[in-house]
Structures are given as C-alpha cells and as structure tokens.
Amino acid sequence: MSLRVGIVGLGRIGRGMLRANYAELTSGRFDIQVMCDVMSVDQVAYLLSHDSTYGNPPFSLDCDGNNLIVAGKTIHYQRVDRRRALPEEDSFGHLRKYELDVLFDATGTATIEDLRSIIKHKVAKKVVCTTNIAGCDLSMVYGVNDNQYDPARHHVISASTCTGNALVPLFSILEKHIGIDYARIITIHPALSDQRVLDGYHATSHLGRSSAVSILPTKTNVAHSAALVLPALQGKLDSLSYRIPTAIVSVIDLTANLSRDTTREECMELFEHHARTDMAGIIHCDYGAWGHEKASIDYLGLPYSAVLVMNHLSLSNGRHLGLSLMHDNELAYCSRVIDVLGVLNRGGL
Ligand SMILES: NC(=O)c1ccc[n+]([C@@H]2O[C@H](COP(=O)([O-])OP(=O)(O)OC[C@H]3O[C@@H](n4cnc5c(N)ncnc54)[C@H](O)[C@@H]3O)[C@@H](O)[C@H]2O)c1
Questions:
Q1: Pocket test for ligand 1, best of 38, 219, 248 (most atoms within 8 A of CB)
Q2: Taking 70 as the threshold, does the pLDDT of residue 84 lie above it?
Q3: pTM over 0.95
Q4: What would the mean pLDDT of 279-300 be, rounded to a whole number?
Q5: Can you tell me which atom of ligand 1 is nearest the CA of 13?
Q6: Is the CB of 5 under 6 A from ligand 1?
Q7: Which residues have C-beta within 8 Å of that of residue 326, sequence separation ≥ 6?
Q8: CB neighbour list of residue 271: distance below 8 Å, 6 or more residues apart
Q9: What distance in Å separates the CA atoms of residue 265 and residue 84, rounded to the nearest whole number?
Q10: For the site Activates thiol group during catalysis, which positions are given (predicted)?
Q11: Ligand 1 proximity of 91 Cβ (cutoff 6 Å)
Q12: Pairing state of beta strands 61-63 and 31-37?
C-alpha cells in the first residue's frame, strides 16, 4: 500500500523530496496528498519548474491557482505559516481530512513541540523531519539503523542530516571491523538558502556575511548526529564546517585514529565490499575518470549518501586514516528520505 504523505516546507529539500518521489516512479512512489508553505501556490509551481541546480522536474507540472497538478494528479496546496500558531494549538487541523500516514516537515523551523502536536492532534500517524531536533523518537540513517524502527514507539522520526547520512555508514563500517578512537570531520558545504548574498542580518552573525565572496567557517552538528546513531562514538568526534560559494555537492574530509593497526588495502577492500553488498546504493567507491580527478559538480545528481574518493584514501603509521568523500547534499538526502518512508511503509504505522 502506498503511504499518504503531506509535505510542509517547499524549499530545497521539500521540492527535492517531491522530485525524488517521481524520479523513482513516474506515477510517484508515495501518494503525496497535500503540500504547504508560506509561499503562494504559483510561486511554488514556478520554483518547481525552474530549478537552477537540477533543471526541469521529472514530471509534468501545472497550477490551477489553488492546487498543483503533478504528473496529471492534483496535489492540494495550503498556504500556512506555523509561526503564527502556538504548538499546543491544532494548527494543522485543516490537514486531518487528508488522512495522512506521514507528514514530512522540511521547514527547518519546527520545534519538537510543533512536531509532537501533529501526532497529538492526529493530523498524521508519523512525522519525519530533516534535522536532528532534540527529543525525536528516532534518528534514522537509512542503511545503518533503519532496522531499529518500531512503529509502537517511534512517532517523530528524524531522517538525520545530509552530512549525517554521508558519514554514519562509513563510521559504522569502521566501527564494525576496526574501531575508531578519535575522528576530526571537516565538511565543505555549499551555501544554504538562509545565508545572505550580501552582508546583512543573520541570527548566527557570521552566516550573515556575504555567501558569494567568502569561505565561512561555521558549526556543524554532525558529530552529534553520528553519536545519536552510533552511541559508541560519543565524545570521540570533532567537527567543523566551511560554507563555500557553490550551489550543490558537499565534500567531507575526515581524519581518524583507528583502534588497531590496518593497511590501506584492508580499508579499501572493506569499503568496496560494503558498497557491493549491504550498502549498495548508499555508499559508492569512485576512482576518478581515466586517471583524472573529478570536480565536485561531477557528483551532481548521484543518489549515493557518500561517494568515497578512493584515490585520496590514505593510511599512515598503521592507524591514521584519511578519507575524502563527496555527496549531492540535496538529491542524495532526498533519496534517503524516500527510503525512510519505505521503511515506515514496510514496518507499519
Ligand atoms: N539544503 C540541504 O542541503 C539540506 C540537506 C539535508 C537537510 N537539510 C535540512 O532541511 C531543512 C530545510 O532546508 P532547505 O535547504 O530546504 O531550506 P529552505 O529555506 O530552502 O526551505 C525551507 C522552506 O520551509 C518554509 N518554511 C519555513 N518555516 C515555515 C513555517 N513556519 N511554515 C510554513 N513554511 C515554512 C520556507 O518558506 C521554505 O520554503 C533544514 O532543517 C535543513 O537543515 C537541508
């Protein structure tokens, strides 16, 4: 049975999730009933059909002034701004008539109280969100801990972050076979839509500096995201992020002290093995093109959570591992969100 899904927040990830849903199956893998944002419906249609990063959508699109017609089917649209309501209010009560199985929140502004209110007021049976908001019932990284999903206990589920989805599968392989004593993670991340093109106000002041002219160091909670899924890593990770003036494809550079001696060959074989077996489609080992290095844009549109740049894998003194990986921070993440919905569909609601 196909899940009945609502999407709140039609920014990069909300629209990307819609694309991913129709990229898998032209009639849509899941039955998206309703979508909401603060924008007008024609503005959503405009942004869906003119995407500077991905081009035309993989579905036909029209707008009748009230709703969107996606691949020939009407998807209801509601203009909402949750910030105008208190979490204890039944602010999404008007969505109850759609009998949603899952409400997907990609606003980035919801609090845990907002998300619990959806469940409490029976607007949807489950909520899936796109960050690690404190208090979620489960942080799910598909391919690593999706088998922990328990419909009786898990109602508000985080699909972790793009960086969490990229790193945690690799950490889980290393933890299973070798062990990690300490790792330092550097993420080099494209600008995000809450940054400023020119200097201006931002709640995090340095993200208010022009995104077009600087590399901006900022915090990332990827260490926390990883430890939520792999608790043995708690206290063993440090992380830092640099926002750069590109639109898409994130790079992660990792150095790790391993718990036992190993070889470069053993590490390569481990990643190759898992990329062929239990993590096929999630991690991918890349060797460049005919001996040439690829540019980050060459990874645009790849659905893997992490593409390991194998030529950059280094090992020194038997225990110091260097890893470099790339990922399409939008499309790959949205593909995992679809996988998370698949887990809920199979596991029950
Ligand atoms: N962009 C990425 O690479 C990426 C990857 C993984 C996860 N995420 C996470 O996904 C979330 C969204 O990121 P994004 O890049 O799509 O941001 P975005 O700013 O492009 O989109 C957010 C959308 O939500 C809408 N919105 C915000 N508050 C709202 C409210 N109160 N009511 C109704 N609509 C509201 C906005 O109008 C906007 O269209 C963030 O939590 C982000 O951390 C982003």
A1: 38
A2: no
A3: yes
A4: 97
A5: 16
A6: no
A7: 249, 250, 251, 252, 286, 296, 299, 306, 307, 309
A8: 170, 173, 283, 285, 308, 310, 313
A9: 56
A10: 189
A11: no
A12: unpaired
Least Cα distance to 330 among 52, 114, 110, 143 occurs for 52
Percent of the chain with pLDDT over 90: 94
What is the 345 CA–ligand 1 centroid distance (Å)? 24
- The DSSP secondary structure of 122-191, one letter per residue, reads TSEEEEEESS--TT-SEE--TTTTGGG--TTT--EEE---HHHHHHHHHHHHHHHHT-EEEEEEEEEEE-
ipTM for the predicted complex comes to 0.99
| Ligand 1 mean position, distance from CA 334 (Å) | 12
**How far apart, in whole angstroms, are the C-alpha atoms of residue 147 and residue 132?**
19
**How far apart, in whole angstroms, are the C-alpha atoms of residue 313 and residue 298?**
19
Backbone angles phi, psi at 169, to 5 degrees: -60, -40
CA-wise closest residue to 143 among 341, 339, 348: 339
**What's the pLDDT score for residue 1?**
60
Domain ranges of the chain: 4-130, 163-329
pLDDT in tens, 223-257: 999 999 999 999 999 999 999 999 999 999 999 99
Q: What is the pLDDT of residue 323?
A: 98
Q: Please provide the average confidence, as pLDDT, over all residues in the chain.
A: 96
The binding site consists of 12-13, 37, 130, 329
Same fold, 4-130 and 163-329: no
Q: Does the CB atom of residue 255 touch ligand 1 within 6 A?
A: no
Expressed in angstroms and rounded, the spacing between residue 329 Cα and the centre of ligand 1 is 13
pLDDT of residue 88: 73
Fold of 163-329: Dihydrodipicolinate Reductase; domain 2 (3.30.360)
Cα gap 329→286, rounded to integer Å:
17
Q: Return the CATH fold of 4-130.
A: Rossmann fold (3.40.50)
